[in-house]
Each structure stands twice: as structure tokens, then as C-alpha cells.
Amino acid sequence: MTAPDLNAGELPHLTTDRPRHRSATHRTTRELFGHDGKFFTVPGTFPGGLPDHIGFTPAVYAVLHAPDPATGESEFIVRDVDGQRLTLGSPAPDQTAAIRSALSALAEDRQAHTQRVEHNRVHVLGLAPTPPVRIGHTEADTCVVHVRCSCPQVEGLAAHYEHVSLAADGWLDEASTTLWKFCPTSPTQVITYSGTARLTSTSRNDKGQAVVQVQQTDGRHEVIALTRVSDMT
To answer: pTM of the prediction?
Structure first.
């Protein structure tokens, strides 16, 4: 499913029961669409090669064995299950061809969406092509915050954020007992509402919030919640 050539590689797993069905009814394709068939799930990371800050919700589709409305000949079609139940790809005389056509159409749609997102970030919003803050995990169960760093890849990549304050509010402070730190090549100048200071250490306060200890230009040390840090340079 992550192969660049969608005419090669393994197909998704097919199942007769609807994945993530919301009730005890409508569990089969016949109950949902009036035709026999099977379900399959496409992960949010499909197709391979998308930027790691672009994610999609896993989607469920059904491949149905049904007659062509115009000719009456038997064919296979793929339709959306969780959305408007639209046809994805082109009908085909066999199941494999129908699924590959659907995957190819979905790949093109997601790649086009990704290009629009990246174009809008740069040319409409005036932002960097990718969010500058990345959150990763290490085997020692430590959150690592990467801020415009030189790390080409992030171990255990979990999320992207526009600002370190958002990373604190949306991730670090939610895991209030987890250790955290900045990666070694992240900036060390911390910009707060009161000015710029030098980062000296990271920790958590008695409320479990992620905090940074900084040294002001006059030599004073101060502990600041990461949610109050607007940027790092």
C-alpha cells in the first residue's frame, strides 16, 4: 500500500465485517449498499512519501460486486463507507483491478491536498513550508522537542506544532509525568513576553507543566512555563 507503483505490492486486508462499525446493524456490505462485497481500511499515512506533517484519518471503503446499471454486466466498484458513499476510482471486471484503481485515485487526491496545504502555508499564510516544532519520543520514555533543528529525522515522531507554546499546551502538559527535553541542535535563546533570555535547563513544576529555566541578560535566573514561550532563536 505504500509502494510508489500502485500496480505492484500487496493489497489491503479485506474483511466481511465493517471495521469500526458504529452500531450492531449495517455490518455487512449487503446491509449498507444492497450488494455483496468486502471492506478494507486505508491508513492515514497512505500513500508513502507524504511529508510527515501531513496526516489523514484512516478511511474505510467497500469493494462491491454489482451489475453495471447500463449494461447489466457484473463488475466490481469501490465506494466510501464513512462519508457520502461515493465511488472511488473506476469500476473493473475483477476485484483486484477495482481496488488498485481506487487506491490510485485516493493517492492522487491526497497528494493534491498536500500540495495545496504546502502552497497555502507559504504563499497565503506566510509560514515555513513545514511547522517548525516537532515532538518525538525516545526509548527512555522521554519527549524530545525539536525546534528548527538540524535533525533530518525525529525518533518516534508524534506531532508537529507552529510554536513551542502550542507544543506544551497540546502535548507536553497533557503527559504531565513524562520527562522532556530539547534536542541538542535546537536554539537556546528563549523569547518570552518580557524579552529574550538564555535557556539553561528544562523540567516540570509542581503542577506537572513543562517549564524552562532561563538566564536573563542581567544574570537573573527565572523559571517560565513553556506555554509562555513565544519562540526560540
So the answer is: 0.69
